[in-house]
Amino acid sequence: MTNLPANGPGPGANDAQSTGGGSGNPRPATRAKHTRVIAKNGDSSDPGAAHRPWGAAEAAELAAADDHTVDLISLGKQIRHLRKQREMSLDDLGAAVGSAASQLSLIENGKKEPKLSMLRALARALGVSSDELLGAEPPNRRVALEIALERAQRSAQYQALGLPNVKPSGRTPTEILEALVGLHREVERQVNLHTATPEEARRANTELRRRMRDKDNYFGDIEAEARTLLNGVDYAGGPLSQHQIADLAAYLRFTLHHVDDLPHSTRSVTDLKHRRIYLTQVGTGAHDPRTVLLQALASHVLQHDVPRTYLEFLGQRVATNYLAAALLIPESSAVAFLRQKMTGKEIAVEDLRDNFAVSYEAAAHRFTNLATHHLGIRTHFQKVHKSGIIFKAYENDDVAFPADPTGAIEGQPVCRYWTSRQVFDVPDKFNAFNQYTDTATGTYWCTARTERSADGLFSLSIGVPYEAAKWFRGKETKARSVSKCPDPDCCRNPPRALAESWAGQVWPTARAASSQLAAMPLGSFPGVDETEVYQFLERHSKD
User: Which residue from 28, 3, 25, 26 is spatially nearest to 14, judged by alpha carbons?
Assistant: First the structure.
């Protein structure tokens, strides 16, 4: 599911003059209030949090997951602060509440949880309510730093280092506390950045695919947002033209600027300060220019914050791509079209493609959004490289994709007898190839095509359980195969005769992609050079 197309079930993209910001009185910009259905982000009210790279959670935020420890540390610091503010010694406070000074010291150091009766006694002695004692914010910056330092030193990561704890006294300069807390946070940030390895990416993809399956890959909140936007530009039906998308940008109070020096690592750059969207002058051919612009607008409409984890990053891409697809292939028009085809038992992905002037891949992904929710058809999608490796996939029909121990299917070899592999050997590249395949989980009818991209030749396939094949064009196909996978003798192990002839006589050199071994790119937006983007915006802000 890495790099899925604009409208697909996964998180990638499918696919200096102003060319339209609208004239006259632009309509009010709409903002989504309930579309964070795939990945939730943190509170963006903190200016510091708004620019943290993904995965760079603060140590205090991680420690906050353990409410019990956090409460004890904060409570102890609060009691100590109030006691010293009232110029009371531990013996004085102990006499007031009927407890030994040594026991109060343990409470103040966050090492002992006081009983409710003791909490009430402490609150009375310190002149505050119990609720104020338990829920109070740190009274000043120094106490907040002491709490942050204590939390960091109690973390499993710090404990594993075997280093001594620093116990700040009243004479410890605040600047020292600032430095220590800053160091802890930077170490935590670096650790989190480097957890975004290929394994972490696979786990994130697996979790995201589970969420999509639970929803049948249909997200009503995003569909509703698409309807609102389309109504705002008086969309009446048919393919969404570039002119209508320019109107949509004006409706959201953005101007469009085509430039020839767009940062090489980006498809678009949005200047939120001046409400400008920068696009390349010439299309790359790999991406529909309508999709690129709609994705830029979608990120704004969905109110995305800077992602803090790789899962959030992927989730945002899925939501952005979904909204772009819901605009290019509007739900009401697409469902009406598919139901008409279903009545005639002539559903075909290529017809959906042609009717809305999108790519076959975009149409296939959009079909998975609508098929189960509106037509009652459970389905699966695959994008498979000619080598047999799964590039992206989605299913809610129980087809058994190969998976690694983490549950990830990306990078796994698919059975050579499946339609997504058989289509590569079909001479007819113009028409869709249809096949029934008997698998360990049932018989599936699948339709597939091949398309070439910058990454090579891929097959794109949509499949449904046998009983749903009656609704599709191509159901009469005579092509049929049998897959015994995951039985290794199906297609993983070589035939016995070949193995006997060649075993031990071959030493191949494997071709491994560097991305399989490298950590995920660092930065707020993986793979994007932020410095280059900021320099670009600085140049064009004076236009």
Answer: 3
Beta bridge partners of residue 165, listed in sequence order = none
- Token pair of 191, please? 């650790």
SS3 290: helix
CA 515 to mean position of chain CA atoms: 19
CA pair distance 136, 381, nearest whole angstrom: 52
Residue 221 CB burial class (10 angstroms; 0-12, 13-18, ≥19): middle
Q: Which of 142-156, 288-302, 310-324, 462-476 has the lowest mean pLDDT?
A: 142-156
Per residue in 36-48, pLDDT (tens digit) is 345 443 333 333 3
Are the C-beta atoms of residues 123 and 132 closer than 8 Å to each other?
A: yes
By DSSP bridging, strand 276-280 and strand 380-385 are: unpaired
**Mean pLDDT score of the chain:** 80
- Per-residue HEC secondary structure of 165-219 comes to CCCCCCCCCHHHHHHHHHHHHHHHHHHHHCCCCHHHHHHHHHHHHHHHHHCCCCC
Instruction: List the one residue out of 18, 132, 3, 58 whose CA is nearest residue 458.
Output: 3
**Largest CA-CA distance found in the chain, in angstroms, rounded:** 93
Please identify which residue in the block is written with the tokens 């028009």.
333
Per-residue tokens: 301 = 């409409």
Distance, in Å, from the CA atom of 468 to the CA atom of 378, rounded to the nearest integer, reads 8
How would residue 470 be classed by pLDDT, with cut points 50, 70 and 90?
A: very high
**Rounded distance between C-alpha atoms, residue 48 and residue 364, angstroms:** 40
pTM of the entire predicted model: 0.64
Q: 161 to each of 63, 154, 168, 182, 437, how far by Cα in Å? A: 17, 11, 20, 18, 55
- The residues that bridge with 277 in the sheet, in sequence order, are 256, 270
Alpha-carbon distances, residue 504 vs 489, 491, 492, 508 (angstroms): 19, 20, 17, 11
**369: Cβ contacts below 8 Å, ≥ 6 apart:** 7, 9, 217, 218, 219, 322, 325, 326
CB-based burial label for 144 (10 Å; 0-12, 13-18, 19+)? middle
Which positions ≥6 away from 305 have C-beta within 8 Å? 41, 42, 44, 49, 50
Q: 496 Cβ partners below 8 Å, 6+ apart? A: none
Q: What element of type H or E holds 50?
A: none
What is the distance, to the nearest Å, from the Cα of residue 543 to the centroid of all Cα atoms in its chain?
34
- Return the structure tokens found at 117: 């009766």
Alpha-carbon distances, residue 472 vs 337, 350, 357, 379, 479 (angstroms): 14, 11, 20, 12, 15
Please, is 249 exposed, middle or buried when counting C-beta atoms within 10 Å of its C-beta (0-12, 13-18, 19+)?
Answer: buried
